[in-house]
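Sample entry (120 residues):
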Amino acid sequence: MTRRVLIVEDETILAKNIKRYLEHYQYDVRIASTGTNGIAQFKECQPDVVILDIHLPDGDGREILSQIRQVSESVGIVIITAFGSVQLALDAMASGANDYVEKPISLGTLKLLIEKCTAS
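Predicted structure, serialized as tokens:
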């Protein structure tokens, strides 16, 4: 079964690198560069996992996380950010994220987190 991943990340190079890496492992990957586009794509493609940047050009990733959770309680959500802190991690987890990763991201670690989110 092909797993679907939505990357909501405004850093184009990072998003494309993650996409290329995951596609190598047979993931079906889409990219959104804004929260608004991310919500639209989420509703359209119904991914298994969302990789969500906390700082987006059109808003706070925590608000996007909340909107995604209103649509689906079961989708895996991994928060990524360059502005990490213990409090941010706790807030993201309390808001419904499955996990949290700071940039720079290890692609191997990210893949493991996605697998953890999709394990049944």
